[in-house]
Design a protein that fits this description.
The complex is a heterodimer. By secondary structure, chain A is of the alpha+beta class. Chain A has 15 helices and 12 strands. A 6-stranded antiparallel sheet of chain A has the order 4-1-6-11-8-9, with helices on one face. In chain A, strands 5-12-7-10 form a 4-stranded antiparallel sheet. Chain A is globular. Mean pLDDT of chain A is 91; it is low at 1-26. By secondary structure, chain B is mainly beta. The relative contact order of chain B is 0.14. The chains are: A alpha+beta, B mainly beta.
């Protein structure tokens, strides 16, 4: 839609537009274009306080507008960064606190319009939940595959609750709901809870299967990591992979205490956990490299997802996608997530998992879980 | 910066002032931060964990003195604060604690006044006993600053309007740890100061309270550190913020971030320093007392005593003496001499994380199962005079304001009067 010259001015100079409003006493941001200019100022906030000079007065002004204009603010959440998303959330809830929520029918229509942005629809769904939880429940029963991850998560949560209520007396019905939820769920915690619940009902679903964890690896270790030296050291497999994107798995290398070779290692069938401490006899001060191939039927956006309590690096097709030098400071599935692009056909993955020399009993784990997902978190299987 | 940029910047500032001036006056209220009996503006109030008066007993049930109990929207180990007639408490919920809440309730009635909700932009993970809502919020009497383990930082008006939002975990993605961060920020000279110290990107930061932008940021030792910064005042009324770590103790100018003095000695990484009049008590392998002294001098170490250092909770001040909780043993000692006065084994008390609070010669202590004790300091000895079971974990330090004791459990907020 073509904007008027006045609107363009407002977009280019949001602070100026807001200042004019102040001067004219239009504290309610009555004119639609002024609301738009204020929203634009908020949309521009970024890291390190970037854009705050314009956004501060804009946020205060927007929190004075009437509730019926909330959808305009929700529209402003389209493709914003997470900082701007929170500014918009705060403004929306600020308006709702003062003026009440907009009409439920308006919010329902907003949520049901999948052409609207996912963040704005998710916030609208939260407003509905706050206003009338029964209405929200009715809507969520049809939204388990919603493109908004926030709405999908709410719908899956509701389904888990429904299945739990049925589990004792109507196990088959509960299993059916859990199975549907397993297909729809993207959040790792929800997936884990569904797997656990299905297990209690006698359904054999493993975490490894539900998450599409990669179980089979080629591994070589130990290289030296005494004093933490190995994290930054570029040992031969890493040099080969980052140089040529390939590794010669038949090659022997000089390890920490002599010649070492590549060998097969496998993750556990249930949790998909690759336990390097077991494989390498609880070696301390050591680096392990792990290699796998992954076939993609097409070029596609993807995410590398690693759970690892040790310092680590991940490369795909020779390019580094994540690096974290933190030891024994918590671990869980999908702990580290990084985007990358899968190419069509064979892709290669190299992990570097470093164990330090801490002696405490809680510092003995040397292990990881790894998977590749689509950008929503749906696990991808090699070859599919 | 070019002249044009300076002018542009000044113009924007002028706009902000023009716009904000009227609104600040007309829309946002403030409270006097001067009266410590009415407010509890941050972790441990003014840093001492002490207040003149609190209820003589804490009792639940029909004959109890619970003024109100309110369910909170999520979990928390963050201490509540009191700003005028509002109690502010932070919570986190969702699958991993990624949903962030700031809730305001009436101190008098417990009625929910407003609630804001955000989404973590940093890593929300933490140990199961902790929560993303772990650092205590803080207020300058005009604004509320809520900080989380994920390093998200929210600034709200007292009415719950969003003033600004920072995602320090988004700005600096390698900051934080997955056991959970817990250092509570402090406000000094119009600056919010936070210690974000872990094995990854480890730093301290000074953020302008009014605008949310960085005033300074400094690298810190790459070690997990859960202790909180502490403001100290010099006789000339200048202020410094003291930050301890496992490596050293430093004091910075709050506005500029330049180091005023440094002691090359590690201190505790969990329990924080306690201002005590002319002294600052710093826990570590030994409890250390610094005499703050004149401006532009490095404080002098007055005494050390290895028997007086607390375990997890910070030391609590009560006039000329302080209390250290060492597991289930409470020790009282003098501030000036660092001499133990009494020691009391507290039967019935389990593991403790919450820093106790003190008022009227009584110490209020809660363990992580929700058992609370009121211990009376009787001069040369101490007596447990009351025991209560809130039946929910308590890891947050309570607040005291207007003679009321506010306790944040895992999922609820209690007010005793």
């Amino acid at each position: 839609m073509e904007r008027t010259l006045k609107q363009k001015r407002c977009l280019l100079q949001p602070a100026a537009a807001i200042a004019i409003c102040c001067a004219l006493g239009l504290t309610g941001l009555d004119a639609a274009e002024n609301v738009e200019a204020a929203i634009e100022a908020v949309r521009r906030v970024g890291t390190d306080g970037q854009g705050f000079g314009d956004a501060l007065p804009a946020a205060q002004q927007l929190q004075q507008i009437p509730a019926e204009k909330i959808t305009q603010v929700l529209d402003g959440a389209k493709e914003v960064n997470p900082i701007a998303e929170n500014w918009i959330r705060g403004i929306v809830f600020g308006i709702a606190q003062k003026s009440g929520s907009p009409d439920l029918a308006v919010l329902k229509a907003y949520v049901n319009d999948q052409a609207k942005n996912a963040i704005g629809r998710g916030i609208a769904m939260e407003l509905i939940q706050r206003e009338d939880s029964e209405v929200a429940q009715g809507m969520l029963s049809d939204l388990m595959n919603d493109p908004s991850l926030a709405i999908r998560e709410m719908a899956v949560e509701q389904a888990i609750g429904n299945a739990k209520a049925l589990a004792e007396d109507q196990a088959d019905a509960a299993i059916g709901i859990y199975r549907d939820a397993l297909t729809s769920a993207r959040h790792p915690k929800q997936l884990s809870r569904i797997v656990e619940s299905l297990g209690k009902l006698g359904e054999a679903v493993t975490t490894a299967e539900a998450f599409s964890l990669i179980l089979n690896w080629k591994s070589i270790a130990p290289f030296d990591n005494e004093g933490g030296f190995g994290y930054a050291a570029v040992y031969a497999p890493e040099k080969q992979f980052t140089g040529a994107g390939q590794i010669d798995l038949s090659q022997k290398h000089d390890g920490k205490a002599g010649e070492i070779i590549w060998q097969d290692v496998a993750g556990s069938n249930d949790e998909g956990l690759v336990n390097l401490a077991d494989v390498y006899n609880k070696e301390k001060g050591a680096v392990a490299y792990l290699f796998a191939e992954f076939d993609s039927p097409e070029q596609q956006d993807a995410q590398a997802r690693l759970g690892c309590i040790n310092a680590n690096k991940v490369w795909v097709n020779g390019e580094e996608v994540m690096a974290t030098e933190v030891y024994h400071s918590g671990s869980m599935l999908d702990q580290y997530v990084a985007p990358f692009e899968l190419k069509k056909g064979k892709n290669t993955i190299l992990l570097k998992i470093c164990q330090n020399e801490q002696e405490e009993s809680w510092a003995q784990r040397w292990e990881f879980q790894f998977r590749i997902t689509d950008p929503t978190g749906k696990g991808l299987e090699s070859g599919n | 910066m070019s002249i044009y940029q300076i002018k542009k910047s000044s113009f924007r500032s002028a706009i902000v002032l023009v716009c904000l001036g009227g609104f600040t006056l007309s829309l946002f209220s403030s409270v006097s931060a001067a009266d410590p009996t009415k407010n509890w503006l941050g972790f441990r109030g003014d840093g001492t964990s002490a207040s003149p008066s609190a209820p003589a007993e804490i009792k639940v049930g029909d004959d109890g003195n619970v003024a109100w109990k309110v369910a909170m929207p999520g979990k928390s180990v963050a201490g509540p604060i009191v700003v005028g007639d509002r109690v502010i408490s932070t919570s986190s919920g969702g699958q991993e604690g990624e949903k962030l809440f700031v809730t305001a309730v009436s101190l008098k009635t417990g009625e929910k006044l407003w609630e804001q909700s955000f989404r973590a932009t940093g890593r929300p993970f933490c140990h199961p006993t902790s929560a993303n809502a772990a650092p205590s919020p803080v207020s300058d009497g005009e604004r509320i600053f809520a900080f989380y383990s994920s390093n998200d930082l929210v600034c709200l008006s007292l009415e719950g309007d969003l003033l600004w939002y920072r995602g320090l975990g988004f700005d600096y993605p390698k900051a934080g740890n997955d056991i959970g961060m817990a250092s509570s920020p402090v406000i000094s000279d119009g600056t919010l100061i936070a210690q974000v110290e872990a094995q990854g990107d480890s730093f301290a930061i000074g953020i302008d309270a009014a605008t949310g932008v960085n005033l300074w940021r400094m690298a810190r030792p790459r070690q997990s550190n859960w202790s909180s910064p502490v403001e100290i005042s010099r006789p000339d009324e200048s202020t410094e913020v003291v930050m301890q770590s496992g490596t050293n103790i430093i004091a910075v100018d709050p506005r500029r971030g330049n180091i005023k003095w440094i002691i090359e000695e590690g201190a505790d990484k969990i329990a924080s320093g306690t201002p005590a009049g002319d002294y600052l008590l710093l826990p570590g392998s030994e409890m250390m007392a610094l005499n703050i002294g004149e401006s532009a001098t490095t404080p002098e170490i007055m005494w050390r005593n290895s028997r007086l250092s607390p375990r997890n909770a910070s030391a609590v001040l009560n006039d000329d003496r302080f209390y250290s909780l060492k597991g289930s043993v409470l020790v009282a000692a003098t501030v000036e001499e660092g001499e133990q006065v009494w020691q009391k084994r507290l039967s019935g008390l389990g593991g403790t994380w919450a820093t106790p609070v003190a008022a009227g010669g009584r110490i209020y202590i809660f363990d992580q199962s929700g058992v609370g004790l009121v211990v009376e300091d009787q001069g040369d000895s101490a007596e447990t005079i009351m025991e209560v079971d809130l039946e929910e974990p308590v890891l947050a330090s309570p607040a005291i304001a207007d003679g009321k004791l506010i306790v944040r459990t895992n999922q609820s907020l209690f007010c005793f009067e």
